[in-house]
DNA sequence: CCAATCCATACTGTTTTAGTCGGGATTAAA
DNA sequence: TTTAATCCCGACTAAAACAGTATGGATTGG
């Protein structure tokens, strides 16, 4: 019942970009350092995010990455779906392609997984990067 | 974001045993046939469930498996934990061993995963095998 | 021009998955 | 007492996924 590191690292990276939103392009090196991720590996992940148009890249010196939309407009669920595929605790209840399960109607276990899926979706889609930034602020206030 | 087939098959098997609760030991062959699972493979899964004392076995001819407790007393979450390990969308928010994460306090992404975990746990622990049996009855009434 | 950066492809060692295989132990029933 | 039905156990395996590495190329600000 695990996410791979793709979703894990990917969200960390996107969150970091969100905290720096408005400060121009952030080089991946910084992201990798701050979040303790192999830079080369992260490059592959951010390529996926770029192709999904969640981030924009600026090439050349002083280049880097920027969120493609404001943190307010990017939900965690979207990031996870891009990196991990449709949310589905088991294949037969994937958000996409329904059925294909021989026993779709009878299968009671299926309804359990649907409930799990929906509860995950509900959480992930209710949190935006901006929400996370606000949480961070709150957290730091308490420490000072 | 997937369960392995262990949890998937395991719940199917346990559910089937629940529907036959009170009818004496059910041979694994029947379970495997009904639920379309490789019998040998299922043997390995049920061994895990047996060691966790979720099912009892009766050896020899006319033997089989029986739920160790009544369907009312077995929650889906328990089955999943036995077969898949503690519920944790990412390692650092496992139900067991907290922390071990260098940045436990700062890490905002962490709180996202905690929320996901809690919502999964809430669903899985709120459903008993007996609940599933009731759902099945309801389902079948509609079909007759 | 050159250093910083992004971009792309290919390779790799490890682990997990989803089984298969082969045989042994137990016991109800014939 | 044999036999067939069952559970029990450990070893093996092919394929995929994971989590990176490695290498080199393209772009661009200073």
In short:
The structure is a homodimer. The first copy, chain A, has one domain: Arc Repressor Mutant, subunit A (Orthogonal Bundle).
Plain-language structure description:
- 2 copies of one chain form a homodimer.
- The first copy, chain A, is mostly helical and 144 residues long.
- Chain A has a single domain (5-143), classed as Arc Repressor Mutant, subunit A.
- The first copy, chain A, is 55% helix and 6% strand.
- Chain A has 6 helices and 2 strands, in the order H-H-H-E-E-H-H-H.
- In chain A, strands 1-2 form a two-stranded antiparallel sheet.
- In chain A, a hairpin with a 5-residue loop joins strand 1 and strand 2 (64-67).
- In chain A, 35% of the residues are buried.
- Chain A binds chain B through residues 1-3, 7-8, 11-12, 15, 36, 76, 80, 84-85, 87-91, 102, 105-106, 108-109, 111-113, 115-116, 119-120, 122-124, 127, 132, 135-136, 139, and chain B through 1-3, 7-8, 11-12, 15, 36, 76, 80, 84-85, 87-91, 102-103, 105-106, 108-109, 111-113, 115-116, 119-120, 122-124, 127, 132, 135-136, 139.
- Chain A binds a DNA duplex (30 and 30 nucleotides) through residues 4-6, 25, 27-29, 38, 40-41, 43-44, 46-47, 50, 57-65.
Widest β-sheet, arrangement of strands of chain A: 1-2
User: Which outline of chain A best applies?
Assistant: globular
Most extensive interface, chain pair and sizes: A-B, 38 and 39 residues
**Multimerization status:** homodimer
Percent in helix of chain A: 40-55%
User: Main sheet of chain A, how many strands, which sense, barrel?
Assistant: 2 strands, antiparallel
Strand content of chain A: 5-15%
**What is the CATH topology of chain A?**
Arc Repressor Mutant, subunit A
| Average residue pLDDT of chain A | 92
Number of strands of chain A: 2
State the CATH superfamily name of chain A. Winged helix-like DNA-binding domain superfamily/Winged helix DNA-binding domain
Q: Note the gap between the termini of chain A.
A: 37 Å
Overall number of domains of chain A:
1
Summed up, the helix count of chain A is 6
Rg value of chain A: 18 Å
User: Which architecture of chain A would the CATH scheme give at its second level?
Assistant: Orthogonal Bundle
Low-confidence stretches of chain A: none
N-to-C order of helices and strands of chain A? HHHEEHHH
The secondary-structure class of chain A comes to mainly alpha
CATH C-level class of chain A is Mainly Alpha
